[in-house]
Amino acid sequence: MARTTPHDPSPADAPPPLYRRVADQLLGELRDGTVPPGERLPGERRLAEHFGVSRETVRQALDVLRRDGLLTTDRRGSHVALPGPPAGSAAPLVFPVGARAAEPRTGDRATVVWGTPPPEHAAALGLVPGRPTLMHHYTSATAAGNGRRTAVTSFSAVALAEVEELARYRDRADGIACAQLRRAYDWMRRAGLTLHHRDTITLQPDTASVRVVRRVHDQYARPLEITDLLVDTRQDALVYEFTLPAAG
């Protein structure tokens, strides 16, 4: 009679199949608001390129999300069925500052990493020097590959402790996977934080670039994040949008 030894592999210890891992990663991106509820997902080919897998693996992953009621499919493609503001509603304040333009850019890249922030970021956030935190890196370039804007954002311990959506990124902050974080300010507000920000804009000497440093704190004056944005004004424009409160 065969006897199972402690060294025999157990099905419970086996890693989930690739399509399930892709489904989980895609679900995480959908919950982050990368694709708003009701909006159509990219095609299978683009998703396969994004996750570095075959179209068949993507197809299986989408089937998993459909069975769970998280996607709906019609003749126009697959659509997000998560609860939330529908596509076409008022756009949230995007993150980081400057990450969205009136026209799509061809060289946008946004990732997150768990690492040591620049010293000035650590000081602004009240972090112990050398202590790692969640950082967001954003770059945008023209079709010719010329830089237009770059941004580095560091988050405080307060933001990671109180904003669940940000805290989830710690285990996914590999500096490789796409991470837009366009709804970061919405997540902070949902966590009960009232946001106050201050932007310092300076011309860079001997260049055509503008540097914008944004600091965000809450209603208790606790720092939440700091963003350092550099814009090449020869190829881009820095645009600010304000919504004034209604009179009354």
Automatic annotation (TrEMBL):
PANTHER family: GNTR-FAMILY TRANSCRIPTIONAL REGULATOR (PTHR44846:SF17), MANNOSYL-D-GLYCERATE TRANSPORT/METABOLISM SYSTEM REPRESSOR MNGR-RELATED (PTHR44846). PROSITE patterns: HTH_GNTR. InterPro entries: Bact_HTH_transcr_reg, Tscrpt_reg_HTH_GntR, WH-like_DNA-bd_sf, WH_DNA-bd_sf. Residues 16-83 form the HTH gntR-type domain. Keywords: DNA-binding, Transcription, Transcription regulation. This is Winged helix-turn-helix domain-containing protein. SUPFAM superfamilies: Winged helix' DNA-binding domain. CDD domains: WHTH_GntR. The keyword Cell membrane does not apply.
